[in-house]
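Much of what follows relies on a compact textual record of a protein's fold. Think of the row as the fold of the chain written in a discrete alphabet. An example makes this concrete, so a full record is given next.


***
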Amino acid sequence: MARPYAPSLAEMTDKAIAILDKNSSGFFLMVEGGQIDQAAHVNNALGTLGDVAGFDEAVEVALEYQAQHSETLVIVTADHATGGLTIEDAPQDGACPDPNAGDPRECGTLLHEDGPFSENPGAQFWVDWTSTNHTADDVPVMAVGPGSAALAGTYENTHVFEAMRDALGLAH
């Protein structure tokens, strides 16, 4: 899908929940913000930030549903990180002095900063990249609802499957 996405991830999430909620036996829904990964692979800060914001809107839809259906477990996580994205409050020394000179994505061996971006009036930040590949960074897991306590702490990624299996009442 091309930006701006239509329908949005939040709209698709809302529609999927509305359809699946008709099943009296319950349902399982996985929503993937896969465009975040695609944007990070090419170090597209604006696309990455926009796609994260779009994913956040989809999570909000799921949380609104969960607030009305307390038996619902919502898990938010990623399968991996991409790009080595870092948020900085000022450009770092050694940043490309002229991003239009030569390859605009490279400064020696380091990818240059993107920005400035504005978070609030008067507050700016830059995005720095270390890679265009997947990274070994730990990814956060956030959960709310029955079984969410099983997802607190640090553990191997297969533990997410185990917590989901247990929440669904499936045999080991």
